[in-house]
Design a protein that fits this description.
The chain is an alpha+beta fold. The protein contains six helices and eight strands; from the N terminus they run ββαααββααββαββ.
Amino acid sequence: MAAVYTQPAAANYFTAPTHAAPKQRGYRLCDQCGAVEQPHLGRFRLCGGCMTTQYCSQDCQKAHWPSHRQICQHTASQISTAKQPGHNSIDESLVKNLRKFVSAHSSLLSWAGFQALQLKRLPSNIRQNALLIELNYRHSSSDPLRRFSIKATHIVPRTYVTDNDPLVGQDILRREERCRKSGGIGCAVVLIQCGEISQVMPVEVDSPSRITWDTREDWPQVLQHFVESGRTDFKPISTTARGTFYG
């Protein structure tokens, strides 16, 4: 029997939120100093090479480059190879727009991964499974935020990602070790794929006891709703002793 909810899963799904968000681990951490992104104070900068690693400042980005160089150049090389003539005619605009899509919807994709893997109820799933999100691409759309739509979602073995690319696997393990040292449970893996192009999105996850997000079985519908409408203002619902919050 499908779950029935009295409130929407996200702010602005139907109406604007009425409460400020409580402080908890954000969707992005600076890969150098570990600072938590606070969107109302300013967005973190993404590495222009891999469009995955994020930093709170240019100084942190420069300081992290020696350890980030290998995985960044590896990712950039894969993208460059996909663009080469004769490589199954990969659409260069698709590569560029997929990276922008992942960046714009990072909050939504992180939340979907958390819900799909049921990490609040079964934290051990983080070591076993990953969320695969398949997309359709409409290159003719005039709205860049509506060029993608959800084709399907799947729960796949985490090794589907880590074994296919050992260097990416090593980077995920590095993030996981950092997360656990700060009290988290590890790194959830979300794989966003459109045709032959894909992007891995590692999500560092706090201990479930520190995450106030409600558990939602309707996450696929919420994911589709925000992607199809081209909206990037997703803020998940949290029910606490102090009331209901979005953020």
